[in-house]
Amino acid sequence: MAVDMDTVREWLTWSFSPSLGAIVFTLLLSLSLPIIFHLFLYRQRAAVVVPSFVLLGPSGAGKTALLTLFERGTPTATHTSQAPQTVTCNLPAGVTAESHKYRASDDPSTKKERQIDVTDTPGHGKLRQHAYDAITSATSLKGLIFVVDAAAISSPQGLAEAATYLHDILLALQKRHTGAKTSKGPAGIPVLIAANKLDLFTALPAQLVKKRLEEEITKIRSTRAKGLLDSAVDIEGDDEDREWLGEGGDGNFNFGQMKEAEIEVSVIGGNASAKGEEKTQVEQWWGWIAQQM
Ligand SMILES: Nc1nc2c(ncn2[C@@H]2O[C@H](COP(=O)(O)OP(=O)(O)OP(=O)(O)O)[C@@H](O)[C@H]2O)c(=O)[nH]1
Ligand SMILES: [Mg+2]
Q: Which residue ranges does the record annotate as region Disordered (predicted)?
């Protein structure tokens, strides 16, 4: 570019000269810069995408009950879900997103930042593709909430169903993480196992729900690993394509092994619905959500 050097030089000389024009110009510039900067940042904030969370878990676990409770603040009757639905919810008063804990509570910009998108998915075995689609398509996915019926877990079938689904989800997340290693892909996703229906007297406490799920996943993992070894006899030493959960696939599984794939698993109890005098208990789940924001 043929910039006229003389003009530049002239302009520079003028700007450093103690003339009134130059002083006023510099003064205006230095005073308006912070304002321009503020407006720019403010606009940027308004464009922030709402963090999203996906609800999944076996049918009847209480996902839709939880979604409506998050949305309305009161429990409502539900029906078996056939299709996923996404709802924008607000963090309840008293819960502060982790990234805004030092912000004044009357800051007008926090209103928008208290919003989250929650996607409910159907739990029926044949409709689970919706859940996998929701995980991959959600913009700004901050976490998965795997809802289990803590009372159903006490029966072998209930436990097997929940654990198989959870195993497959964790495996999908692990694959997503390993697959992303080569390029700069998505980091690990935190998972909340919401032990629901703790108001029922047959429900297992959260710690026991965790233990039972880990034991069941240990079984599932070793069964799958055996199947893999049998079918992989002719493909010598094909260790690259790891298909099992956590380290190696032998021994006992525990959720801590998912940290390798940057997946932090927490198990927290509560109840999304309540009968008669009983109250719903979801504060700790809100607390977990706020931690991920
Ligand atoms: N006692 C009790 N019942 C609950 C609780 N949460 C949900 N329920 C009941 O469990 C039943 C199933 O709840 P839903 O929310 O429809 O279950 P879902 O996980 O959405 O099931 P799908 O849509 O089939 O995947 C409903 O009758 C709820 O009222 C709870 O915390 N305690
Ligand atoms: Mg439902």
A: 100-123
Number of domains within the chain: 2
Q: Which pLDDT band holds residue 237 (cuts at 50, 70, 90)?
A: very low
Same domain, 159 and 222: yes
In a domain, 2, yes or no: no
Angle, nearest 10°, between helix axes 206-231 and 156-180? 70
Task: Give the CATH number for residue 258.
Answer: 3.40.50.300
Percent of the chain beyond pLDDT 70?
Answer: 84
- Ligand number nearest CA of 272 is 1
pLDDT digits (tens, 9 = 90+) for 154-188: 999 999 999 999 999 999 888 888 776 555 556 78
Quick one: 54 and 13 in the same domain? no
CA dihedral over 153, 158, 164, 168, signed as positive or negative? negative
Pocket (CB within 6 angstroms of ligand 1) = 59-65, 78, 80-81, 122-124, 147, 196-197, 199-200, 271-273, 275
